[in-house]
Design a protein that fits this description.
Strand order of the largest sheet: 1-7-6-13-14-4
Radius of gyration: 15 Å
Largest sheet: 6 strands, mixed
Number of strands: 14
Helix content: under 10%
Strand content: 25-35%
Number of helices: 2
Distance between the termini: 28 Å
Shape: globular
């Protein structure tokens, strides 16, 4: 759940999505040589493609799949939804009440993940703790395109293998234009 600034009704993963990736993640090789389709499973689907506050985003993944999921916000914040097993941030995020958040081996067992846009929260590990806990921040807060990446490798490695990608557009009806 580490936030970092680092280098229709259904959104089926496509094989030509380099255009929407941040520069530092373009042309990262995937096992299949194609971007977006999980070589292990062939399926990573995000639905619906258009979201508003309170909508539920459903991620569907065939097993086996990688244990790492990341959401890139319109403001280029990188939000980890799963992290290395045993990493302190896993327990700290759960302690703070971040939801959804998983250890990598726990996430790899899922074939579906439902994320309520009104309730999904993360912690910013770069901010100070209050009363010994990280403070929660909403994942879906700013209108714009959110990129969701699936990987068999931790996103904190130099060259994570992206095995699935999709984009959704979130509209914050309360956001001042």
């Amino acid at each position: 759940m580490n936030r970092e600034k680092t280098p229709a009704n259904s959104a089926q993963v496509t094989t030509d999505t380099n255009i929407s990736l941040p520069e530092e993640m373009k042309n990262i090789p995937t096992p299949s040589g194609k971007r977006g389709e999980d070589k292990l499973t062939g399926k990573f689907v995000c639905s619906p493609k258009q979201l508003r506050q309170g909508d539920v985003l459903t991620l569907t993944m065939n097993k086996p799949h990688g244990g790492y999921l990341e959401i890139i916000t319109p403001t280029k914040e990188y939000i980890f939804i799963s992290e290395l097993d045993g990493y302190d941030l896993v327990e700290e995020s759960k302690k703070a009440g971040a939801n959804p958040f998983y250890g990598a081996s726990e996430f790899a067992k899922l074939d579906e993940l439902k994320i309520n846009t009104a309730e999904a929260t993360t912690v910013d590990a770069e901010k100070d703790k209050v009363n010994g806990k990280y403070q929660l921040e909403k994942i879906f807060s700013v209108s714009g395109e959110y990129k969701i990446l699936l990987s068999k490798d931790s996103f904190e490695t130099d060259d994570p293998t992206i095995t699935g990608q999709c984009e959704v557009y979130y509209t914050n009806i309360n956001q001042q234009q």
